[in-house]
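User: Please predict structures.

Assistant: First:
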Amino acid sequence: MDLKGIYMADEHRYDDDSFYSRCGKSGVMLPKVSLGFWHNFGGVDPYERSRAITHYAFDHGITHFDLANNYGPPYGTAEETMGRLMDDDFRPYRDELFISSKAGFDMWPGPYGNWGSRKYLMASLDQSLKRMHIDYVDLFYSHRFDPETPVEETLQALVDIVRMGKALYVGISNWPLEPLKVAEQYLREHDVPLLIYQGRLNMIDREPMEEGILDFCREHGIGFIAFSPLAQGLLTDRYLNGIPADSRMAHEKFLKSERLTPEYLNYILNLKTEAEKQGKTIAQAALAWILQQQGVTSVLVGASSVNQLAMNIKCV
């Protein structure tokens, strides 16, 4: 991919209307495949690769870039990459992008750099906007439920963030069902309806379905976006022949080798057989399965190469 000169987005990027889904009962349309910045876009990653991946994504209709304050590594550097991308390539297309960020997990030392206090959420978003070189985010999430902070404090901070013009919409991620119900009612009554819920959902991890979260979102007009749709590579052919030295499982931080059981291997081999009958890869079949679930708006995919993203988009 030629990255020299001024970036000009592909004029046919919106030709396929079926690539977009309405987010709950809102006016927002999201691509069925969205680009996540959790890994591969941090300070340790080649910037030109990040440019190539985001160019390809936008050229193929992916308008939603999903970030968080502590994405990297190191923390904050995925948002810094987004800031460089805005300056170098995407400033003319800002109004075509749907950019999200989050706060809730650890970001800086001390009592105000974690969880769900008003101070943390407000300060974190201000930092995120500076790193990304933008005036507002389209969507701001509470990244996890805080059992110690009064839920009204967290939710009122989200309301005020919208009223201050620093976010257009709000979402929550990793909240249990009962606090989700409280959030839906509180935000609705304060005229800042909950746009979307972000949860871990894939063919192996189905907690949002089993716990009733996906049903609740669908019944109340809340969108749902799935993260870790490939179970961090378990739902691909990555581990069919052992643990590659450069794989996430080899580092044992986010993905433990104990998950590589005979039962898992048998499951993936069967999935591979069924996917091939449909002319799909394991990953494409796994992504397509999520999009077939009622109430799902989009799946978040990461990408370490343009080719990987290109293959995953074919799930639609």
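Second:
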Amino acid sequence: MADDMGTFRVDLEIEKPGHPSERRTLQSVLVDTGAELSWFPAPVLESLGIERIKEWRFRQADGTVLARWTGGVIVRVAGIETLDEVVFGEPGDLILLGSRSLEGMNLRIDPLSKRLIDAGPAPAAATTAASRTPTIPTSHGCRLAPSIAIAELGSRWIETAPAVSTTIDLPVHDAPVKPPVRTSQ
């Protein structure tokens, strides 16, 4: 369901972890990537038996600070779910699907069609046994995988990643970081 000015809304379900038979549907929830956490009505969360875990403070655009409790729920949109920390919204608070819930479901916004779409493969820190390569020691005791490593070589920096990879600057000491120089492979 589309709104004016580039915003849109979705229907979603929430449930208490470990209790899949108890779900609540929230309709027309505003998708807000500017909000870190999702905000759902406290009475709905309480009806599922969601416990208040911790109190957060939120600064509003006008500078005032709100205190709200959070708790853990399963959020489900279009059959995709994530376990997330959400805000117990009070009367007058907006009902929002925030960026952490979207990231947990690996969804992103398609601004043209005003819908949620798959965000594609997530970055991985692990490798399979077949693709493991030795790590590169740095001059500061760190060991970096060649796929992302930038190794110091005297006063020169060389990128050790394949030409198709993205260069990532990894500050490992206080000296100024010089830009990577591509070498032939």
